[in-house]
Amino acid sequence: MSAVYSFRRWGILSITVGLTFMASNAARAQSGSLQGQVVGPFDGRVANAPMRVMHIESGASWRTSTDEDGRYEFTSLPAGDIRVQVRVRCCEYMPYQSELVELRSGDEHTFDIRLEQGFQLNTLGDDVGIATAQILANQNIPDLPIPRTIDGRPDLTGMWMYGDDPFPPTPVFHDWAAELVHERTANQFIESPRIRCLPTSLPIPTHTPPIFGKFLQTPGLIALLYEGVLGYRQIFTDGRSHPEDPNPSWLGHSIGWWEDDVLVVDTVGFNDRGWTGLSHPRSEQFHVIERYRRTSYGEMALELTIKDPEVYQEPWVRQIPLYLTPNEELLEYVCENEKWLQSIND
Amino acid sequence: MTELAKSGYSMKTRLQFYLFMACLGVGIPVWAHHSFSAVFDVNSPIELTGAVTEVDWRNPHAWIYIDVENGSGEAVNWAVELGSVNGLIRRGWSRSTVRVGDVISVSGYRAKDGSTRGNVSSIKLADGREMSGSSSRD
Question: Using CA atoms, how far apart are residues A176 and A181, in angstroms rounded to an integer?
Answer without folding.
Answer: 9
